[in-house]
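Standup notes
- DV: blocked on the single-chain target, sequence here:
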Amino acid sequence: MTFPQLIVGERVIGGFRELLEADRDGTLADLLAA
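- DV (later): unblocked, structure below
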């Protein structure tokens, strides 16, 4: 686990790499829209 950890709502996204992956695959947009 790396720090800082990014959290959207109650879901832990992870670090910067996980954030980029979530953005690329559309997961981030879905989380932000909810």
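- Follow-up: The longest strand covers residues 11-14.
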